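User: structure tokens for this one?
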Amino acid sequence: MSGGQDPTAGTGKLVSVICRTVGRATLTEALASIAEQSHRDIEVVLVNAACVALESFVPPNYPFPIKLISGGAKLARAEAANAGLDASDGNFLLFLDDDDWIAPEHIISLLSTLEANPQDGAAYSSTRKVSAIGEPAGIEFDRDFDPILLMRDNFIPIHSVLFRKSLLAHHCRFDTDLEVYEDWDFWIQLSQHTSFIHVKSLTAFYREGGDSETDAHNIDDRFNMGNILGISRARVYEKWKNSWSGEQISALIESSLADDAIRSLHADIAAKNEELDRVAARLEKTASDYKFIQTDYKLVESAYQTKKNELESTQNALAAVRNV
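Assistant:
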């Protein structure tokens, strides 16, 4: 499977976009977002992880060459990622799974940042989480790089990152023992050899409901050893615990305690908001009762005035009779 050939190839700025796919319908949208990139020196490494027919997903006259990688057997997530790394010819690499997409300026923005900072090996954009149909889900990944936070959690979606292929010389690979969090572990590997630069532009879009199972709705699920998230998280910690210094672990615990305090404050704020809602409801009822009382008062006042007028009329009539 092949697409067009870019006349700028050979400039040293070739970007390999590694697309792991299981043949979802959204692959068409992912490939279209690559085709619309402002940077035009690109190859697509399409890794067929599910042994499905992919020809129908690629439009005719696709602007970039496509390498189809298919080993004849289904590939796990980490296996598919490694197959993509092995097949890539670019000096810069980026992953884009078949259910996500990137904005047209995504690659050029990250590439320009790396070119301006040759000492750094990875740059990443901000990312917006969207629903299955592409509508904003109210969550954005926009944290600046923090190696301590990366020890605890993955805050960098996989397709937000452009990194130098030269980092693979440090034997950085996706860990095939991890069913999920394989990208988190890979970022930890890269972070041993480079810093990451956060480009504060929202150019990546992460669709919820994929097959990574890392989209926990409850924070406790991520640490629950009764599910794949907790199990894989424990494997990541087990793998790295002996590589972390006491100073790093101390900073990690401090960070976790700070987050606990923040969560506690959020809980207090939520409780106070609920109390305010109850007070507001009582005030609204009181106001309604007051309006009702006002209405009753006006009716009584009107009736009183009517009776008073009738009494005055009667008194005037009696006075007139007496004067006859």
